[in-house]
Amino acid sequence: MRLAILFTLIFLAGCSFKSDNLGAWKKETSNSFESYTKYYLEGKTRLASVSLKRALASAKSSADLRPLSKVYLGVCALHVGVLIDDKCDDFLSLDDVLDKNDSSRSYYYMIEKKFRDVRVDSLPKQYRDFVKAVKKSDFKSAKQDIKAMKNISSALIASSLIKEHLNSDDIDFLIQRTSLYGYKKAIIRWLKFLKTTSTTKKDRKIDKLLKILN
Amino acid sequence: MSYNKMKIAVGIFTFITIIFLSFALFFILKYKGMFEKSYTYAFYANSAKDFDIGTPIKYSGFKIGYINKIDFTYDGKVFVHFLVKAKNTKWINKRAYLLLRKPLLGSSTISLIANANYPVITPNAILSYEVQDDINSLIVQLKPVLINVKSVIKNIDLLTKELSSPKGSLMRSMSNLEKITAKFANSKSMVDAVMGEKKSSKNITQSIESLKEIMSEVQKSTQKINKILKHVDNGIIKPSKKIPKNINDILEDVKKKLRKLDGLVNAVGKSDKDIVLLKEQILLAVDKANGLINSVNSLIQSDDKKVQLP
Questions:
Q1: In A82-199, which ranges are continuous DSSP H helix?
Q2: Which of A131-145, B152-166, B263-277 has the lowest mean pLDDT?
Q3: Which residues contact A65 (CB under 8 A, 6 or more apart)?
Q4: Which terminus of chain B faces fewer neighbouring Cβ atoms within 10 Å, N or C?
């Protein structure tokens, strides 16, 4: 019992009841975007839409536009991760008000496959080795780097960036991994992609899976 | 070298080594304060479960003594003796007391809390003893938040029950509408004529069709809320951050359903103040709950939380 309370309260350790509202909008943006990511990949469209609206509303409550640009970029990246083309127009609409050296820009170049413009050291850590390998056209290493990614959404995004170089086993492995999280939307999208690369025998299995999932 | 000379040399070497080791040991023990005089002090505790013989007594983070004896008294209390080195007895004065701190992480520690401006007390004195339980104090801090969560959830629960109750104003209005639309089912133009415009009658017809489904979903949400409420009633929240998120999800769901009802409530609400009031109450409750969830999230997260790119 005490352990249970302890675990709950570990989260509260070091926290105090604050009377001010400092940074609350940032937390709300971040939390809502986290919820959006989860719901989007799970295919819970309504909940994802509500979470995104909240994330955008809170991000727009400040003159600091970096969180807003990250939300736009994150949305774009998730689309890319589930194999939906997205030119990141929302992110680009903030182009003239954002710092040209902002780290988000490298991320943008990455998800748009403009690898030559990517500054590897300003990318989130999980992508650095992957991008280095892709820049050298070393797709074998890039695939290994994807397998080493702990975050499944990062693995989905990275996989989509080299999808032409993935074989059916790679895709199958990715789908199995995604299945562990119950990310239905991602599973369906990647199954459909797998269908384009697989044999007739596998096709039947994929069709059946898609039928069940839909 | 003859055998006898060798024996003498070995003997001298062994003797010097023993002398050297003895001196080394002596200086180590002296440095450790083994030969320094210690004085005994004591305190009463309700339980000995958080300390043992050898548990250090600290002052300003430095060890000044340790527990050397624990007795169980005839009246069920625990009488604890602790030793303090002579040079540290100056900290034990009339206003000094011992504080057992049970941190959230790590083992319990006993600290001497003292102000040097008071007269020193003589050895064998009994000191006061206090317990500071970080877990308990956090629970105390958390209680108002829990009470708020509970009241908001109960409010939502009442409202959803009101929505789905056959005697509720929404259901009564719906039932009336259903009768009207049933009567006019064969004459769509008449419904349009009654409602004034085609759009309104279409909205109502669609809403009636989806109402049953909505209500059943709202009831499911209520059941989920009740489950969480049970945990809150027990005085303990589940050991995870999921609880605020679950509440959030449920409330978002209720909000969504409410939006679905918009077409209907707006059309009917013009003539039924109760429904408009009900809707306003729900929106207010949901808004309050969202604010509350944000504040719970604020408690459990650092101030510099940033949007993490996937």
A1: 89-92, 103-111, 125-135, 139-148, 152-161, 168-181, 184-197
A2: B263-277
A3: A59, A94, A97, A98
A4: N
Asked if A90 reaches chain B (Cβ–Cβ under 8 Å), the answer is no
The dihedral over CA atoms of B63, B64, B66, B67, expressed in degrees to the nearest 10, equals -130
B211-to-A213, B98, B205, B257 alpha-carbon distances in Å:
27, 65, 10, 10
CB contacts of B306 in chain A (<8 Å) are 26, 30, 67, 70
Q: Which residue has the higher pLDDT, B179 or B61?
A: B61
CB atoms within 10 A of CB B183: 11
Gap between the Cα atoms of B186 and A19, Å rounded: 61
- For residue B162, give both structure tokens: 């009101």
Q: State the pLDDT confidence band at B259, using cuts at 50, 70 and 90.
A: low
- Cβ of residue B259 closer than 8 Å to a chain A Cβ: no
Residue B97 makes CB contacts below 8 A (sequence gap 6+) with: B112, B113, B114, B127, B128, B129, B130
Closest CA to B201 of B171, B172, B180: B180
Q: Is A4:B239 a contact under the CB 8 Å cutoff? A: yes
Rounded to 5 degrees, φ, ψ at A210 are: -65, -35
Give the whole-angstrom CA distance, residue B113 versus residue B99.
Answer: 7
Neighbours of B270 (CB within 10 A): 11
If you search the block for the tokens 């013989």, which residue do you land on?
B53
pLDDT tens readout for residues A27-78: 888 888 988 999 999 998 888 888 899 899 989 988 888 889 999 999 999 9
Q: Which of A12, A33, A106, A109 to mutate to test the interface with B (most CBs of B within 10 A)?
A: A12
Q: Between A10, A28, A77, which is nearest B310 by CB?
A: A77
> Is the CB of residue A153 less than 8 Å away from at least one CB of chain B?
yes
Structure ipTM over 0.90, yes or no: no
Task: Identify the three-state secondary structure at position B67.
Answer: strand
Q: Is the pLDDT of residue B275 over 80?
A: no
CA distances from B70 to B38, B81, B89 (A): 17, 6, 20
- In terms of DSSP bridges, do strands B56-59 and B38-45 run parallel, antiparallel, or are they unpaired? unpaired
Which residue among B256, B300, B310 places its CB closest to the CB of A12? B300
